[in-house]
## 1
Amino acid sequence: MTNLFFGALRIAVLLALFDTRPQVAGLTVGGAVTYVALTQVFLSAFSLFGWYDFMRTIHRGEVASDLLRPLNLLGFWAAQDAGRAAGQLLLRGLPMLLLFMLFWQADLPLQPLLTLLSVVLAWVCGFAFRFLVNCAAFWWADAVGIGRFAWAALSLGCGFLMPLALFPAWLRETLNFTPFPSMMNSSVELWLGLRTGKAAWAALGEQLLWAVLLLALAYMVLGRGLRRLEVAGG
């Protein structure tokens, strides 16, 4: 109910922006409504308001027991987060989407398969970024503040707060050099059909590139953090 309420507010703001115009920055009225629906659907699945689970295990020393498991620590957390994200998407996001379709006629994806691939890659990029932020706990006694700045940048850069199409051109170009659009905006644009053909495959390529780079960086930072980890004096 809370998400529907905030969704209604955001839809009202965007519809006021359109007034009598059929399009604004390439977005139609139906596209704007669907954009709001998708941001509410992906909100929990992509943990856009923050994720501190790994950070807490470092601060409490629980990471030591995780290291005793015969598993790669990064893969261990990726598997947990994949299950959490899938559960949120199916049990919370899908009913939310159906309600937005019922009340505001949100659109179905115009490119279902490409959109699905994009959503998976968006989760990978987002998880790797969130894991990197959590690794700050290896160097700072209280890294929650760093996380808050990171989540604010994520919400802005991935297009959660506002469609990136409405940003000034210079800011959009700047964000294109960051991984943030690959964490949600690319999926929304594919869903809405704003990127089709070669542009759609280019978007998927960008997401795949960022996913590989961020995972590699997370693996490297995790290794450096574990080398300096001290639990109970040992």
## 2
Amino acid sequence: MMRQITSNGITLMTQSFGEAGNPAMLLVMGATASMLGWPDELCAALADSGLFVIRFDHRDTGQSTTFAPGGADYAVEDMADDVITILDGYGIARAHLVGMSLGGYIAQMVAVTHPARIQTLTLIASEPLGWDEAPLPHISQAFLDHFGALGTLDWSDTQAVAAFLLESDRLCAGNAAPFDEVRARARIAQVLERSDSPASMFNHGALTMRQDWAGRFREISCPVLVVHGEVDPILPPENGRAIAGGIAGATLVILPGIGHEIPAGIIPELAQRIAVHACQGPG
């Protein structure tokens, strides 16, 4: 079920799975990624476990409000507000929140600023909100080199854009299984078909924050599950360990051979872990 939610001049495209009367779970994807970053199979598996699952296109992705490349004037806090806008649009008082990468950062913001709205938190391939200790390892040099090609990418050449995105997926992949190029190509084709301005997704790379969030992830009080790939090249697992170490009672799961990704092979296990975590959270 597709549904548009509009607030303060911003339209967010959402899609739901399962029965609306079931406990709600909102999935928040990472930077540059639309709702398609959440595999259909994962959404369906979570819905089959008795959850009402919602995924959505961030600003500048998919069918949500899109600004011209380089023309976005919003901050990360505005993307956190979008989460509450979606919950309000669906009439959901409290929800389980699942965030990946930047989506996990945003989810932590929401858990800190709107604790009454969040039942449980699952953070996948994320970094701690307002980390204030020794620097944590981040994006690999190979990925930085790849992103260096953005300045010369011809966005009018669909094949070139698809090839760039495919290489991004390849660099994100771990070694638990061979890279599934067929699956990646199919998703990328869907992403490009749903976007009028694919270049705009990279507006996320210039986002800033308005507030000082130093140390605030430690304020999170709801049950937290941290899931991290063992060989994540974007946010290495030290980031997940830092989150779990700073939040009382948090559970940490390190997935062997997994990168910054949700490959098909881990979907059954991931869905089960998320659903069990949600069921153990407060009612």
